[in-house]
Design brief:
The protein is α/β, with parallel strands linked by helices. It has a single domain (2-8, 29-87, 97-188), classed as Rossmann fold (3-Layer(aba) Sandwich). It has helices at 32-46, 59-70, 89-92, 122-133, and strands spanning 2-5, 51-56, 78-80, 110-118, 139-147, 159-165, 170-176, 182-188. The relative contact order is 0.21.
């Protein structure tokens, strides 16, 4: 696994293979709490007065709940599920994760989607379909903790804290303990 810090390599939103100069940390060395603090700074720079935060279930939902609190925003953040629009719905079925809850009028809204890991782009495509079922936003942007490349669809993050090279045989997911602290889990797919 190779991590490319967000201030090196391709511009934000672009994917590139690792250059070989990056360290190869173990999964334990990927500090999700440190990445979260960088995400907090990045989201602050993307915020507009009318921006609404929406987290993709489940890792993005955990991020958006904490961001909403840490940014001192009133109200509840939006939570969005990709379950009903996935192109692999027949194989995966309906997940037991949180369902979509958008406590604001989507029409004309400035929506900042948040997710833990951007990989093929298929989850974000499904999330966009779900979002448009609720209305027509004025603007939709995407911020993620980790962009691991491997895109199958033309989807790019406006802000990615880190870029990561991980074999396709492995999956990376955000985990949260009982105290709310973040960590990453790497598993064989």
């Amino acid at each position: 696994m190779n991590v490319i810090p967000s201030n090196e390599g391709p511009p934000r939103g672009a994917s590139a293979p690792p250059t070989g100069r990056e360290p190869a940390p173990s999964a334990e060395a990927l500090d999700a709490e440190a990445l979260y603090l960088e995400l907090l700074r990045g989201v602050k720079s993307l915020m507009r007065p009318d921006t609404r935060l929406v987290g993709v279930t489940s890792g993005g939902a955990w991020l958006v709940e904490r961001l909403q609190k840490d940014l001192g925003l009133s109200g509840s953040p939006g939570i969005i599920s990709s379950a009903m629009h996935r192109d692999d719905f027949a194989r995966r079925g309906l997940a037991a994760t949180a369902q979509t809850s958008l406590p604001f009028d989507v029409n004309g809204a400035d929506v900042l989607l948040l997710d833990d890991v951007l990989y093929t782009g298929r989850t974000i495509r499904a999330v966009l379909n779900e979002l448009f079922d609720f209305g027509r936003p004025g603007c939709v942007r995407l911020a993620v903790l980790v962009d691991r490349g491997g895109r199958e669809l033309p989807v790019a993050a406006d802000f990615a804290v880190a870029r990561l090279a991980l074999p396709a045989s492995q999956s990376l997911a955000l985990a949260r303990d009982e105290q709310g602290a973040f960590s990453f889990q790497v598993e064989q797919a």
